[in-house]
């Protein structure tokens, strides 16, 4: 029986078009999912859209649309990222408006209520619509959210339901102690641990009055309230794999329901941005404990993408549309840049100048040129020679540090090793000049070219999770013993 691996991205809000930041999260997760498949795992890879909450409701009203029509339109934009980003064909796509998810969220609420962890009270709080989170004064800079400084902080004063997060402080600390690599990188976990020890955990609001904000999942037994968007959205990680197995409401075929698969796939590895550590590692884990479900397996936290040193924003006009890059440079070029030139855990800067430079240096002059040089020699001199592909397929040919980088979710580190391997192979060609040697000593020259082809094949295998199409193209050229008719990556001016 195959080992299983469940990986999910966060679900982005449908209040704006897809941007390069989410493309980075999607591609990084896809690379890990592909690596796990190659390592022999049965993989469930999940993404989708978060469609409830104040931000979405306000945006729909701004555009003069009813919320469901608005979310249908934007969800389709995110669903269509699969092909342009080169994602696995069997990736699951869940929407928080899916009927089966709504049923699961309501069942989850009931279980937390039965555990005594949901209660109602009047409260007054400062709230950032951009984050869809309550904010304390210590989290504000000059009275504004540090992440959304252009949005006014709202003051909410009403009666809401609350989740007893404070009850789970010691259990969460115990979870972190038992699993020191629960959050990657580990310093993110240390930050959370310190925060809990220093300031403790406070209960958080998990509902909104329907009269003020009607767009949400109805609270079971109280039609006057809808669920707080975070409570609803986080449940998608388990509803996507069929929790609860005996769902009362069945979803139409093809909508993502995996009835009865929860025990097969859980626990999950979650990809999320650095602004979601509290939600993913604290709130969600406590909610799971309350519902008497096992915690997540691991949470991988990535940084933000800046542009020219500034945070990307519509007002600054520096938001990058990944689909525009794909239309000009291709899917594999975007995947390469996201994997090779963006740090997996820290903030990284993106500019078109850097992207173009990397494309020409790494792909046109790098991978593309290397494949052409080697396969031209192979097509010319190896037509009657067996390249012994069984040797090239030897797993031991893959560097162990390459595999470890993937196991550590260090996509950039693994991709850097591919670059290093290609550079070493290119240097070897320069040093040995097989195109000259074959003219003076054909036996040695042919043997050397065979070795170069096998090493190129190893590189193609290393590229498989990162650039799947390029990997397949290179392997096909080698098996047919042909040089490319057209450059794999044409130079761009």
Kindly describe this structure.
With 493 residues, this protein is of the alpha/beta class. The chain folds into two domains: 4-302, HUPs (Rossmann fold), CATH 3.40.50; 351-480, Isoleucyl-tRNA Synthetase, Domain 1 (Orthogonal Bundle), CATH 1.10.730. 47% of the residues lie in helices and 16% in strands. The chain has helices at residues 20-38, 54-62, 67-79, 99-114, 169-178, 186-199, 229-234, 236-239, 262-265, 277-290, 322-329, 331-341, 352-381, 389-392, 400-407, 411-432, 434-440, 442-463, 468-480; strands spanning 4-8, 42-49, 92-95, 118-128, 133-135, 140-141, 144-145, 154-163, 183-184, 204-205, 207-209, 218-219, 222-227, 269-273, 298-302, 305-307, 310-311, 348-349. Strands 3-2-1-14-15-9 form a six-stranded parallel sheet, with helices on both faces. A hairpin with a 4-residue loop joins strand 4 (118-128) and strand 5 (133-135). Helix 15 runs antiparallel to helix 16 (411-432). The radius of gyration is 25 Å and the shape is elongated. Residues 246-257 have low confidence and may be disordered.
Q: Count the beta strands.
A: 18
Secondary-structure content class = alpha/beta
Which residues form runs of ≥5 with pLDDT under 50?
246-257
And the CATH topology of the largest domain? Rossmann fold
Q: Hey, roughly how much beta strand do the residues contain?
A: 15-25%
Instruction: Give the distance, in angstroms, between the N- and C-terminal Cα atoms.
Output: 51 Å
Average residue pLDDT: 90
Largest sheet: 6 strands, parallel
The tally of domains stands at 2
Number of helices: 19
State the helical fraction.
40-55%
If strands are numbered along the chain, what order do they take across the biggest sheet?
Answer: 3-2-1-14-15-9
| Shape verdict | elongated
CATH architecture classification name of the largest domain = 3-Layer(aba) Sandwich
CATH homologous superfamily grouping of the largest domain: HUPs
CATH class of the largest domain: Alpha Beta
